[in-house]
Amino acid sequence: MAHAETLDAHDHTAATHHASSNLAHHFDNLEQQREAGSLGMWLFLVTEIMFFGGLFTGYIIYRTQHPQAFAIASSTLDWKLGAINTVVLIVSSLTMALAVYFAQMGSRRMQVVFLVVTMLLGATFLVVKAFEYADKFEHHHFPSTNFVWEDKDIPASVPAEQRETMKFHIQMFYWIYFAMTGLHALHMIIGIGAMMFLIFYAYRGRYTPEYHAPVELTGLYWHFVDIVWIFLFPLLYLLGAHLTHGGGH
Amino acid sequence: MSEHIVSKKLYFVIFGALMVLTVLTVWVANIDLGSEKLNTVVALAIAVTKAVLVVLYFMHVRYSSRLTWIVVAGGFLWLAIMVGLTMSDYLTRGFLTYPR
After folding, report:
1. Within a domain: residue A75?
2. CB contact, 8 Å: A32 with chain B?
3. What is the dihedral angle through the alpha carbons of A78, A84, A85, A87, rounded to the nearest 10 degrees?
C-alpha cells in the first residue's frame, strides 16, 4: 500500500513497474492493484450479503410466526437432492480454489482443467435444481393461483379451523423457497457465464502469476454463492427432517 | 507484502472439514434434540462454521489486508443489525399486555 513516501521513492517504484503491461497507470504497483481489486469485489459481495440478507430476514420472520407450517412444507422437499447439490457446490468451491492456485502457479493447462470442472459442477447443480423445480410444478407447489396443498399432507392433529390458514402459510414457505433458490440459481447462471470468459482467456494464456485478477475475483464470487447455499440447505431442506418423513413424496 | 498463496494441502483439509460438517448437519437434523429451537441453533452453528472456513481460506480473507477484514466484518455486522433490530420488534410483540 502507498504511504507518505518521498516523491523520489514513489517515482522509483512507479518506474520499476511501468515495464509491466499488466499494471494500470493509476496504481503504484501490482500489489496495490491486486488489493484494490479484491477490496472492490468484497464491497460488491457486501451488497450481495444484504441482498440475500433481506430474504433471509423474511424467512426468519415467517418461520418464527408459523413454525409448524414451515416444518410441514420443508419435509416435502427432497433433502437427498439438496444434500447432493450441497456436495456438488462444495466440490466446485474446491476446484475453483485450485483453479486460482494454478493461476498463481502459472500453470495454464491445470488452470483451464479446473475452471472447466468448476463450470460443469455448476451446471450439474442447476440440472438437479431443474428436476426439483419440475417436481414442485407437477405437484402444484409453485405459489400461484394454481397452488394446491392436499389435506392429507397436513397432520391429523391440526384442528379443522386452522387447516386453511396453515395452507396459506405453507404457500408462504414455497414463496420464500422459490425466491431464495431462484435468486441463488440466477447467481449460479451468472457465475457459469463468467467461467466461460475465464476459460477462454485462460486457454489463451492471458493469466499469469503476475496478473490473474479475473480468476481470483470470480473465485470470490463463486465461493460467496456457495456460502449462500450452505445456509439455504439446512434452513429450507432440513428443518422438518426430524419431525416428519424425510425425502420428498 | 506479495500475494499469499494457500497450499493445495490446506485447500483439501478445508474441503474435508466442509464435507464432514455437511454430513454432520444432515445427521443432526434427523435427530430430535428435544426442541425445534435447539435443532435450529445446531444447524446454524454448523452453517456459520462452514461459512467462516470458506471466507477465511477459500476466499483468502485470513491472508488479506486489515482493510479487507473491516469491509468483510462490516458486511456481516450490518446483516446482524438488520436481523437483530427486525426480530427485536417481532419477537417482543407478545410482551404487550393491552389488547391489540
Report:
1. yes
2. no
3. 150
